[in-house]
Amino acid sequence: MRCLAVSAVAVALATAAGAALAQGQVYRCPGNHFTNALTPKEAESRGCRPVEGGNVTVVQSRAPNAGASAPAKAPAAAAPRPADSKVSPGVQQERDNEARRILEAELRKEEEQLAALKKEYNNGEPERRGDERNYQKYLDRVSELKAGIARKESDIAAIKRELAKLPPPSN
């Protein structure tokens, strides 16, 4: 029983000593290396500077394997496919036509929304609403409309770029 109490005290003292060491001054050394295991004299000689004004959490990462210079898993698209898994030209043409149809529908929807935003924007002078007694609210809405128009134009340009990547439609 007495041996158990002595070992519990020893564990508590070791934990307290570790906590005291962890609470010491943290230094930032060249190469963004952080440490708290240096004396002030050692830190100065290595060119380390004390870190002040907050807590520092350092997470130790695993070192990469010496032989592994590339990621462990290559993306599936980069790996060559077996000959039997290729898609027939007819199936690929159907997929391309479906992708084109979806992108064209999305393009029409975005262009309609852009037209509605431009109509509401009214060349930078939209109609004031009843809830905009405060002129700043009106200005905020105008700037939101302008930003929305810019976003829609950007979205439309992106859809057009995607359409340009597809092969020409076939009948």
Strand segment count: 3
Distance between the termini: 90 Å
Q: Uncertain runs with pLDDT below 50, 5 residues or more? A: 1-22
Mean pLDDT: 79
How would you sum up the major sheet?
3 strands, antiparallel
Question: Which outline best applies?
Answer: flat
Helix run count = 4
* Strand order, sheet with most strands: 2-1-3
Radius of gyration: 32 Å
Report helical residue fraction.
Answer: 40-55%
**N to C succession of SSEs:** HEEHEHH
**Strand composition percent:** under 5%
Assign the structural class, choosing from mainly alpha, mainly beta, alpha/beta, alpha+beta, or little secondary structure: mainly alpha
Properties at a glance:
disordered N terminus, flat, 171 residues, single chain, 4 helices, mainly alpha, three-stranded antiparallel beta sheet
Written overview of the protein:
With 171 residues, this protein is mainly alpha-helical. Helix content is 54%, strand content 5%. The chain has a 3-stranded antiparallel beta sheet with strand order 2-1-3, covered by helices on one side. The chain is flat, with a radius of gyration of 32 Å. The N terminus is likely disordered.
Quick rundown:
54% of the residues lie in helices and 5% in strands. It is mainly α and 171 residues long.
